[in-house]
Amino acid sequence: MIKSTKLKPYFRVFDSISHCSKLSSNRSKANLLSTKGMTLTELLLGTVVAGIILQLAYLGFSWNRQLYLNDVARNDASQTFKTAFDIIGPNIQQAGEGLDASFPSILITPYPTNPPNPNPPNLNSPTFNSEITVRRLIFSIKLPICRAVNSGAQTEIFIADNAGPAGCSVTDNNSDGWPDNLAQWKDYRTSNGGTSATIRAFIYDGASQGEFLNYTGENRYDIIGNLITSTNPANAASLIVNGTLANSYTAGSAAQLLLIEERKYRLGCSDSAIADASCPSSQLQNLKLIVNNGTPVDLANKIGQFTVTATVQQDLTTTTTAQFLCWKIPAIGGIQTGTATCNNNPPTTTQAIKLTNVYVWSQIYSINVTLKAQSVSDPTISSNTQTTINNLQETRNFLPRNILNF
């Protein structure tokens, strides 16, 4: 007879297998329950977290974009200033090249109108616009004035005359019939436009007045005053000119004719249909260059203010000097400042004053150029940045290096 106790181990094995099957079944049910989905609470929590993450990402993007736009706006304004200074500065430094100490090499005037207050209260923070003119000699030969020139319309000016004052005798080392100095002017004129070229010349009395006229050709005369068209020696010679002179000029002395380059800088109107001189201040924003009274050329835009002043240093006695900050140079005759267009520097009074002594350009200590950015109204730029740009102002001081020659 078989004893039941021998079967117990097998039953234990089967019991273990059954128990494991039950455990596996329970795990499968739990897994099935876990893959059925999230609860509503979990879904809401996940949505909130995702929204926060997206919001933070958007804020970060917007903040970075705003910083970028602000930096671009500030950099644009700074680059505009740099462009303007890099052009104007070297031209101011070259002013007066080849000219004497009294020549009107630098002119400054408010433009297009005088300041609302004829005595600007703070020239270190000016609020008006200016025009600056810088001049330099471009041809080394200067011609004398050998017969008196009266004001009014002109057809010719004599620059050589054997019967004239000292320095006017005809010198013809080439024996070509042309005075040597006039021949060089003729070559310069024809090489810059041909035989029919017109050149802008400057007549200057050497002391207090000067002006431009158009030089269009040359004449030579024999001893009895007949026009010479051959290579016969000349007894007198003249420049053919046209234009109306405001002043009269005496023969001899320091009077002379020069070929100079003149550059003017001022703000122009953004509306081409409006003349610069009549432009509203809100539309004066293009810095322009005018060379020899030619067509204006735009150099930089988005400039809200262009102000130029001059620091003038004059000797009062043998031991003292005085500085003046002037917003208009000159005021009379192109040479002297005779009206109240200066302040003491540093200011000791708010009242406009005249220069103590006669002004000559070699007394200039520095030319001070102030640029201010055009006002910005842009919804893409933060109000703080707009305020920063609208208050952006820079002043640089330039020394005309030719002053050091005097």
Describe the structure.
The chain has 406 residues and is of the alpha+beta class. The chain has helices spanning 8-34, 40-94, 180-191, 383-390; strands spanning 106-110, 130-137, 143-144, 152-161, 199-204, 210-221, 236-245, 256-258, 260-269, 284-291, 297-300, 303-315, 321-326, 342-344, 364-373, 393-398. A six-stranded antiparallel β-sheet has the order 3-8-5-6-7-4. Strands 1-2-9-10-11 form a five-stranded antiparallel β-sheet, with helices on one face. A five-stranded antiparallel β-sheet has the order 14-13-12-15-16, covered by helices on one side. The termini are far apart.
Layout of strands and helices, then pairs:
Blueprint: H1 8-34, H2 40-94, E1 106-110, E2 130-137, E3 143-144, E4 152-161, H3 180-191, E5 199-204, E6 210-221, E7 236-245, E8 256-258, E9 260-269, E10 284-291, E11 297-300, E12 303-315, E13 321-326, E14 342-344, E15 364-373, H4 383-390, E16 393-398
Antiparallel strand pairs: 1-2, 2-9, 3-8, 4-7, 5-6, 5-8, 6-7, 9-10, 10-11, 12-13, 12-15, 13-14, 15-16
Q: Which sequence of SSEs, written as H and E, runs from N to C? A: HHEEEEHEEEEEEEEEEEHE
* Helix count, DSSP H or I runs of 4 or more residues: 4
Percent of residues in helices: 25-40%
| Sheet/helix structural class | alpha+beta
Q: What is the strand content?
A: 25-35%
Please, what is the average pLDDT?
A: 81
Shape verdict = elongated
**Strand order within the widest beta sheet:** 3-8-5-6-7-4
Poorly predicted residue ranges: 1-8, 332-336
